Structure formats: structure tokens, C-alpha cells
Amino acid sequence: MFYQFITGPLLWLSFGIFFIGLTVRVVNYIRGLDWQADRVAYRTHLGMGLKGALQSIVHWLVPFWSVGWRAKPLYTTIFFVFHIGLVVTPLFLQGHAVLLKERWGINWPTIPMPLADLLTIGVMVTAVCIAIRRFALPEVRIVTTAYDYFLLLITVTPFATGFLSVYQAPNPGGIADFWIYAHILSGELLLVAIPFTKLFHVVGYFLSRGQLGMDFGIKRAFKAKGGFAW
Amino acid sequence: MPEGILCNKTPVNTKEQLDAVLADKGGKQYYEEMKHLDIDVEKLQKSLQAGFKSRMRTWLEMCAHCGLCADTCFFYLANRKDPTQVPSYKILSTLGKIVKNNGKVDNAHMRYCMDVAWSKCTCCNRCGSFCPYGIDMGIMFGYLRGLCFSQGFVPWELKIGSGMHRIFRAQMDVTSEDWVETCEWMAEEQQDEWPGLEIPVDKVGADIMYTCNAREPKHYPEDIAEAAILFHLAGENWTVPSQGWEQTSLTMFAGDWEGCKMMVQNVYAAIDRLKPKRVLGTECGHAHRATVIEGPYWVGRKDGRPPVPYLHYTEWVAEALRTGKIKIDPAKRIKVPVTLQDSCNYIRNYGLKDVTREIMSYLVEPGYFVEMCPNKEHNFCCGGGGGINGLGIYRQQRNVGLKVKRDQILATGCKLIVSPCHNCWDAIRDLEEVYELGIKQTFLKPLLIEMALVPEHLKPKEEEE
Fold it and tell me: Given this model, what pLDDT does residue A174 score?
């Protein structure tokens, strides 16, 4: 019964909040762009702007493509292991695809289990690295707040609990299926948290990078051959 | 609410006000009054509502606190990696707090904001090009300067600078008459060496209208003469406007957006009046930023471009060399190691990196040009940008900040630095004064005049019997 509820209505609600929330954020962001306040002629030079936006987004999406990523190789490695695991694992996990197949008969592509395990371990290990970095480096510590650790925690919990449930870790307090419930609920918490916290960067990244790319494409690097060398 | 006599929320608009602030040497009384200045919270809230929109709001909200911006900031590096110099910390602890508290901040916070906005950031925008999210803290500091200015928290020299622009439409007290006289004087002075040289004032329909920096007529009139010589050499059909000749903008450094608009309108009015095919600005970075890059937006031009093509001096030089309007004597090319200072304002923020290198290829014997590292759009600020060169109370911070440029120059092994930007030129001159490296900085104009081949018909005629 409880399982039905949290994988039924509660899941729908979480996805609803996730998608609607992010849509609202995207719409609000774009509506809040102001050519005169931002000093970027978005509309007049839309073509140049979109080209600049694409360049800016892609250079930072691909590991080691931007000058910035190359300047920090260790961090960049940690960063991409973390993010690739975060995105790929839940989307293509066999355990998730099974649900889609059972409920709606959709054939969803999957990745092999060992790879999923590797990616999950990657997420957990790099999350620890990111946390250590937060208090080890003075330049990061000074901008770090408890909230940053909280967000890291709610991001990693679905992965840790999912991993424990797959490998059938002993259930705390003898609660049957504890880890799978913890996994589902923490996953739903994450979905709901994304639009309301700085985790909204799942779309915000594209908006913000895109905006700066437009700025450089239209205005600040329009004289440079090939655009700004990100 | 207490407003100072000199330090207050009202910009300097009259000669009397200006003289009063100027008379307060070093701003002693001015800064004393600032300590008691009240904050107009309502005004601050209105400004935030009107100007703090999704782009910056998202930047502040989304900052991942990753600290990757730290190493990109020359102030952070020059101050032995002091964490309070991390760009994200600097902006979160200043503008971030104003936004979080919706403008309800006290006098001490506004003075802290002023210190950070003018002594810990030159708005060079380098951090923005290294942030994975593309958070440009230089832009936010520019915005913060505007908030500070509107509340009266602006360094003394920039209160004056803004006032100068508002009264004289120039960063210094140079009137239209002074300017025209200086042009006439400079043209006259050159007659022996350059017979027929002219500085045409207010000629309608010229190919080029030339604009410059008020300190040229005020302190270095030879710079105007040099510009004239080069136009003469290149055979250009050019002119200067009697009004609207001043291209710089201390109002931009001050965060005086209303003053910025006045300044740009004045230059664009000259364009409307004289209808030149193109406009050319002097070797100045921020003047280009103000008049060509940001200016169109301040005056509300929807295409974000000036009314006619408006070149930076380096663009014209490259063109003149490329087309052979000015020819360089190969024997006179630079044959000592020489490096190039990339100005943030027209390299990182306008993309002229190839143009300046093209110029170097004409002026320097192959093998002698040494690039700085990093360079081009990733170059470090000279250390004197954003107005800090002229701010007495932040002299010490400025001098510490110069260390990064010093080390960059030392690493090239060059003693000569080509620096086609007034602020960079000043910063490198001061760098030499403080650190005594035995280096020399130069604009392009004197180099070109020294190296150019002079066609026979432009040479002075031999004395006839």
C-alpha cells in the first residue's frame, strides 16, 4: 500500500512539481531578460546571439574543452565524474526501465548494471571529494554555507540508498525494504527540491551560460574571429 | 536624513559644487561626512526592482560557491590568496547582502561595498570567463557601483570626475574653446616639420571623426599632434568635433549612469551634426567601452551599436598598415624583445585580439614579439582599470594589485611594453615607479611616427634661394 502510494501519486506529484517548477523558472528567466538593463541586444542580433550561446554552452559541457576546465584538471575530473553519474544513472538504470516497461510497456534504453554501479560509486566518491574540498580549501571554505552541504547530501542520498537497496544491505531497525523506501522518498525529495534551490542549475546552467554566450556573441566578442575563446 | 555638504546623494552638477568638492584636498571632509550618511532604503529597493533582473538575480542565487573564480582574480593572486579577495565572496558579501536584505543595510555596509567595489575589483570581467555558470562578477560590481553612487558612497575623485562630465562633458575642466584652441595650437606647432598639416574642426561629411581623452588636450597635447600627423601621413579626410570630442567616461567608473548617458549623447550628437562616415577613438580602453560597447545601450539604441561604425584606434592602425596608407620603414622595426598589453575593455570585452597582433607583425622584426602569459581575452587586468589608478584612498591596494602584471611582464623578459590604452599605460608607468624594473611603456602613435616612411610630397621643402 505504502509502496503503491510513493511510487504512484507521490511520484506523479514529485515529477509534476519538478517539471512545472523548472518550466516556470525557465519562463521567468527569459521574461526577466532586459536588453537595456543587461545591455545585450538580444532581439536585434538573435542569430549572432544564439551562435554565441551555443558556443558558450558546449565549451563548458564537454570535459576539458574550455580554458577554465583545463586550468583545473583535478577538479574538472571530479566534477564530470559526479555530474555524468548523476544524470546517466537514474535515466538509464535497468531497475528504472523495468518500471516503465511494467506500467506503460515503454522500451527504454538501459546501461549495463556494472556500469551503473561504477557510475553510482563515482557519484558517492566524488561527492565526498567535493565535501572535503569545501572545508579544505580556504577560497572555497569562505563561500561555503551549511546549505551547500545540505544540497550535496540530498543530491547523493538517492544514490547511496539505491546502491544499498540493490546490494540488499541490512535494514535498519528491521523495517522491511527500508533502503528501497528511503531511495524512492529521497529521490522524490530531490526532484521537488530542484526547482526551489540552486539545484535548479539543471536548467539554470543552460540559461546562464546561454545568456553570457549571447552577450559575447552579440556584443563583447563580436569582433573576434570565431567568437570568444572559452 | 543627514546629508553631507560635500558627500551626499546629489551628483555634482554646478561649478560651485565642483569647486567645493575640489577644495577639500584628498577628500578629508568628504570621507568624514560619508561616515554619517544615511541610507535611502526606499530608493535602494526601487533601484533593485527596476534594474536587478533575472540575469543577475540568477547569478547570485545559483553561484555554486565552488571557488573556481579565486585564481582568476589578480587581486586574489596579488594578495597572497587572501580568501576575502575571492570574487564570489566579494560580490556575495556586498551586493549579495543588499539583495538578501532587500536594501535594508547600514552605513558601514555601504562603505564596505564602496571599498570592495572600487579597491578589490576593476570590473575587468576575467572571472566571468572562467566561471562554469558564466557568472560575470565584473558586471555585478559595475551594478553595485551604480547603487553606491546613487546613495553617495563613491570615492572622492569619482564624485569629481562625474561632476566634470556633467558640467564640462569632459573628464577634466576642458571647455570647447580650450579644445579647439589646443587643436589649432598643435596644428600650428607642426608646420615646420609637417607643412600643410591640419586639424580640421567641425568639417561636415569627413571620412573620419576623431574623438579622444580629455587628458590629451589637458596634459599631453602632443598626443593630438601625433594623431594629426598620422592622419596627415595616411592622407585621411578627417575632422574633430568642437563639441562631443571627449570619449572617456569617469561617470562609468563612478557608476553614474545618468552621467554616462549624457556623455554618450554628446558624442553621438556630434556624429549627427557632422555626419562622418566613421568615428575613430583614441588609444583608450574604457573610452571605447563607454562610447562604443555600452554607450549605445545607455542612450537606448536597440541595435546596441553606435550610429556609425566607431573604431578603436588599433582597428584604424591595422587597416592603415594593411592597406599601405602608412608604410613602415623595415630598417626601423623594433629589434628588441617587446610585449603587448591586452586591454580588458577592447580585447576581452570587444574581441580585438587579432587586430593588435596584426599591428605588431608590422612594427616588430620577426622573432622579437613575446606574448604575455596568459594573454588575449584571458589576459590579466593591468591593475589600473576601473578607475582605481586615480583613487587616492586605494593607492596602496592598487600598488599591491600591480604585482601580477609585474610578474607577467618579468616572465616575458621584455623591457618594452606596447600599451594602446591610457589606463594600462598609466598602470605600467606606475608599476615601473613602484617596482623599478627598468621597463618602458608606449602608445602606438609615437612608435608609428618614428617608424613610418614619409612620402616625398609630405616632407618639408628645402629652403629656396
Answer: 84
Of A68, A134, A209, the CB nearest to B130: A68
How high is the ipTM of this complex? 0.94
- A60/B132 Cβ within 8 A: yes
Q: What is the pLDDT of residue B465?
A: 47
Residues making up chain B, counted from first to last: 465
What are the pLDDT digits (tens) for B147-178? 999 999 999 999 999 999 999 999 999 999 99
pTM (predicted TM-score): 0.95
Give the distance from residue A219's alpha carbon to the nearest chain B alpha carbon, in angstroms: 7
What pLDDT is recorded for position B224? 94
The torsion angles phi and psi of B416, rounded to 5 degrees, stand at -115, 130
Q: What CATH code is carried by the domain that includes residue B75?
A: 1.10.1060
In the listed set B153, B186, B211, which residue is the last one of a domain according to the structure?
Answer: B153
For residue B218, the enclosing domain spans 168-311
Query: What nine digits make up the cell of A208?
Result: 546562464
Are B62 and A204 inside 8 Å of each other by CB?
A: yes
* Residue B86 CA: distances (Å) to CA of B69, B80, B221, B265, B402: 7, 11, 41, 37, 17
Residues in chain B, pLDDT under 50 = 465
Nearest residue of B to residue A31, measured between CA atoms: B54
Q: Are A223 and B83 an interchain contact pair (Cβ–Cβ within 8 Å)? A: no
Dist CA A139 CA B86 (whole Å): 6
Do B70 and B126 sit in the same domain of this protein? yes
Give the orientation angle of helix A146-166 with respect to helix A178-196, to 10 degrees.
Answer: 150
pLDDT above 90 as % of chain A: 90
* Closest CA–CA distance from residue B144 to any residue of chain A (Å): 13
For B385-435, how does the pLDDT look when each residue is reduced to its tens digit (9 = 90+)?
Answer: 999 999 999 999 999 999 999 999 999 999 999 999 999 999 999 999 999
Of B54, B84, B133, Cβ closest to residue A33: B54
Structural domain containing residue A198: 2-26+46-220
The answer to whether residues B49 and B132 belong to one domain is yes
Are residues A213 and B134 in contact, defined by beta-carbon separation less than 8 angstroms? Answer: yes
Distance from CA of B459 to the nearest CA of A (A): 37
The full length of chain A comes to 230
User: Could you tell me if A205 and B134 are in contact, meaning their C-beta atoms sit under 8 angstroms apart?
Assistant: no
Task: Give the count of domains, chain A.
Answer: 1
Determine, for residues A219 and B293 on separate chains, whether the beta-carbon distance falls below 8 Å.
yes
